[in-house]
Amino acid sequence: RPRRQGSGGRGPRPAAEGNRERSPQGQREGQRQGQREGQGQRDRQGQREGQRQRVEAAEGAAGDSGTAGDSGTAGSGAAGEGESRNKPKRNSRGKTGGGAREAVARELVELDAETLERRRGRERNGRPVGRYMMAVHVGHGLTQVAVMEGRNLIEHYVSRPAEDVSHIHGNIYVGRVQNVLPGMEACFVDIATPKNAVLYAGDVQYDAEDIVERSSERPRIEQILKNKQLILCQVTKNPIGMKGARLTQEVSLPGRFVVLIPNSKTYGISKRLPDDERKRLRSVLDRVKEPEHGLIVRTAAENATEQELRADVQRLNETWRDIERRAEAARRANRAQLLYREPDLAVRVIREEFNADYRSIAIDDRELYEEVRGYIEVMNPELADRVEFYDVEAEGLPLYERFHVHEQLHKALDRKVWLPSGGSLIIEHTEALSVIDVNTGRNVGTSSLEATVLQNNLEAAEEIARQLRLRDIGGIIVIDFIDMEIKENRRKVVEAFRNALSRDKTRSQVFDISELGLVEMTRKRIGEGLLQSFATQCPHCVGRGVGINTGLLD
């Protein structure tokens, strides 16, 4: 996101750039060393080519047994009824048998020493040095993932059991159209969950040849979809409150390095990558992508080899073929059905986040540890040793107490947040939007009122950006900064706020500060947020926050 789309550095400079800074003697020595390494590289390349051919033969033999890695594991774990294809046995978390995964793992391990060293990132005394770490706690029917920067908690995720229909983002269904509403330019779709989902006209895919009344304008939704029609769709937003899930017909399958867009011409490369790396990846993808599907290259693909990209694309293609087979079976049975379920939370977050900037992943559940370790050994073998099992009995302290996560979570659930100079934030939520009020509190300043207010607002801008990530606040957000008389000071506060938000992987948009000192912004909402994950509605006020004294009305 979400960094949360990968915050890895750009790695070392290219060798050519480094040679320009060397002395003439160092350049000659580098040339001789390059010649020796070139010969060794050609020898290793011949060995890897033979290994690759053997791996492809092994993968071909295991091709019909399902895919390995994140997407294949999740796709095969979906509840597809009425099918009896031969598959390897899986445990309760949906892990695939060893054949295909081990074949891919052998291929990924075949990397040269320079690439492996670059992938591992910085180390000190043989131990990784990274800004971030993950602490994964399993208990009370929940899986919690805490992302730490140093000792500070910056992001927190909560996953409920797979059968919880309030967390279905990314799942793919065959749904049945229930009501087409031309006036709303939308329709409701039954996806076999208690509450119908909504599909807006802009998210509908159609074939122009199927439209009876053709025109130069986009056809209306009632011309494309009919009641009781079965459609393929994917959840883009979880149900929240009284609102059902939101759907799209433009399906996407995220992998480690690329995102597959089936039956699309979409083609793109992350703008966070340097230009020379984008050029290299473009030439590689021209060789590995299938013409009928689109691809989006992720930031994590930086320095990825052609073999890794090819394996990632092949896994996603196989997952899509499996989804199509399940969809055809659901249509024959004439029922709405789940086709593909996103992986467990820990695997999903690791897929999006984990790179050389992370010094470790600590997991206090043995079964989940084995699953995550196996996933990393396939997808990031050079970082597999950073996945650690946290033995609570041996350590004598729960994982979240050991890293002070509990303490920071309690503060993140409070409506009041203190600023370094004594000011404070008050964070409130309503059905329509979230409101953040900035106060000077105990901050009385030293020189002038304008300087005190500017300092307080700058601190608030930095802390608000952190709280939005930590609390996962989405939708419309209004921030009431303290009024500033000088226009340049207002510009500084908005600029500082935007810079602080640039570290957040979740898409957001910030508008200029108004004359009243209000800043309006939007932040993409996917889940329910941190507060809703741990809170229940008050039975006395029913979420209103106040109790009505009806006796005074008599």
Question: Can you tell me about this structure?
Answer:
The chain is an alpha+beta fold. Among the domains are: 172-210 and 220-248, OB fold (Dihydrolipoamide Acetyltransferase, E2P) (Beta Barrel); 413-534. It is built from 16 helices and 23 strands. The protein has helices at residues 15-20, 24-62, 69-76, 98-109, 113-120, 221-224, 275-288, 306-333, 345-353, 366-379, 392-395, 399-402, 405-412, 449-471, 487-501, 530-534; strands at 123-124, 127-128, 132-139, 142-149, 152-159, 172-181, 186-190, 197-200, 230-237, 246-248, 253-254, 258-261, 267-269, 294-297, 337-340, 358-363, 387-389, 416-418, 424-429, 434-439, 475-480, 508-510, 518-523. Strands 6, 7, 8, 9, 10 and 15 form a 6-stranded antiparallel β-sheet that branches. Strands 18-19-20-21-23-22 form a 6-stranded mixed β-sheet, with helices on one face. It has a 5-stranded mixed β-sheet with strand order 5-4-3-16-17, sandwiched between helices. β18 and β19 (424-429) form a beta hairpin. α2 (24-62) packs antiparallel against α4 and α14 (449-471) runs parallel beside α15.
